[in-house]
């Protein structure tokens, strides 16, 4: 009965907030605006006419505009989702399919795509520039957070071709007590990576099960340092291979500088101990250590990069600490992601969600803009701001939930890292991840002190080039990994 009442209350609140919107939308509008129309939305994702997509993006608009029918056009091949790709078969490209549909006989009005796909569609002249519409309607974009607005402008060469109502982001979280115990200053916004690493050295202490590490790229225990490192390298635009995916690009001074720096920090015990399969994992998750899988929540890590979606788990653990034997509430806060001097303020862990633009060949461009304006407006943001996992793009509705107090601005006062064109290569060459795996193995040898950074990078370059050539000669065929003995040197 209580569950039913909660559902009724939730629906009532939603309708109560939406009803004024419906009235506002109808005020002063001409009778012709009440004619039934169809708004076609195409996506390069797996959304069909499913409930999630409507709840997330279109439901409120449909309620406020009952005369406009939403029609979804998914362009992702179902084999992507259900594993129907056969060995040797080329994977269909959702972006190419989307571009084809956008120029077809019955083109969609609105398109929804990923951030890494946006520059391609813009350069192909398939989207309508939104700046004139924004100016004409005096649509306020000043309240949209930099993490989203700058990302949209960067993708369009300074012009706006799409808007996005939500995003997820990461920040640097820190344990206040550990800093106070070490007599060290708290982290602050706008720090460089080197400043963070210097702070990490000051709070690192102990060894074994009593070790407290100063920093890691992830809160996850036994996490892989190589993959976490991508947060550090993304703003530097370090690439594994060229834009064609045919030649490695890792045997460089910049790559060497990064690997050497990280290996030295590992030696100085800034990061958690490397995984050793010959040793027990230390604390295991049990009644005594319920959050052993998380180094920060287990009190073994002073600073880490944390996604906004993880905040709720930490807040719930603190709130219900009495229920978790062995858990000590953590006094914490967050600051902006560190950045490199050559890319000041640029973070490497931002995902912009719900990117939508108007098809240059839209059959119903007026309703397309009406929809985009609505979904990116104040009222929509206000209603959606109660999410615990996604952040709305309008800053005035970004506030900590459930009476929490923390520096939430840290999650959005940053600029996304530039788009990585390698995303397309991974789609076109499904086995290219094996080249990345060679890098992981070589990096592991470097941080364990078994070879220098340059030696590891040269080996990665040589073996990677050989694999890329095999992939070019025999596309979509599995490529044997080099023998481990060759990788270890």
Give the tags.
single chain, 489 residues, alpha/beta, D-Maltodextrin-Binding Protein, domain 2, 3 domains, 4-stranded mixed sheet, 40% helix, 11% strand, disordered N terminus, disordered C terminus, SBP, Bact_solute-bd_prot1, transport, ABC transporter substrate-binding protein
* Radius of gyration, in angstroms, nearest whole number: 25 Å
Count of alpha/pi helices: 19
Number of distinct beta strands: 12
* Main sheet properties: 6 strands, mixed
- For the record, the CATH architecture of the largest domain stands as 3-Layer(aba) Sandwich
What are the segments in which pLDDT stays under 50 over at least 5 consecutive residues?
1-19, 21-30, 485-489
Number of domains: 3
> What amount of the residues lies in strands?
5-15%
Topology:
Blueprint: H1 2-26, E1 37-43, H2 51-64, E2 68-74, H3 78-82, H4 94-102, E3 110-112, H5 118-123, H6 131-136, H7 146-155, E4 166-175, H8 176-182, H9 193-203, E5 213-216, H10 225-228, H11 230-233, H12 253-267, E6 301-307, H13 308-319, E7 332-335, E8 346-347, E9 350-353, E10 356-358, H14 365-375, H15 378-384, E11 391-392, E12 415-416, H16 422-428, H17 433-447, H18 453-473, H19 484-488
Parallel strand pairs: 1-2, 1-3, 5-6, 8-12
Antiparallel strand pairs: 3-10, 4-6, 4-7, 4-9, 4-11
